[in-house]
Amino acid sequence: MQIDFHDETNSIVHDQIDMIERLITFAGTEEKVASEAEISINFVDNNEIQIINRNYRQIDKPTDVISFALLERGEGEVEIIGEELPVVLGDIVISVDKIKEQAEEYQHSFQRELGFLVLHGFLHLIGYDHMNEEDEKKMFTRQEEILDAFGLPRQ
Prior knowledge:
The protein is an alpha/beta fold. The chain has one domain: Metalloproteases ("zincins"), catalytic domain (Collagenase (Catalytic Domain)), CATH 3.40.390.30. Helix content is 47%, strand content 17%. The protein has helices spanning 14-30, 46-57, 96-105, 110-125, 133-150, and strands at residues 2-7, 38-44, 65-69, 88-95. Helix 1 packs across helix 4, helix 3 (96-105) crosses helix 4 and helix 4 crosses helix 5 (133-150). It is globular and about 35 Å long.
């Protein structure tokens, strides 16, 4: 899987990027996502994610992760016909400030919270959601299964 990283905070280190690449590759294999699929992961601060959250979700406060899936067809959009194109799943935006806050709040490591949010965003890109109780249970159960199997269990 091709992952394009952008870190506006300059705080995500090489070992964390390596863990993310391994986690997304593992999750992609588990979920049978094409190995040539592409995503971007963007790390920002609370101020930037609040602007994004306000502009795209009309919620004027910082959040931890936002996903923009490119494979969802909106009303009136038509399917692209033609040559096989690389599968671009979409973009994930994560607040590094929220990773730190939530790691402390949930009393686990920065690494665990980082993995949790990256995987959460990835699952949204491939079609999981939590808009109702049944979908939420399905998504969060799958998320924990993947994190446990990868070696980032809740402690």
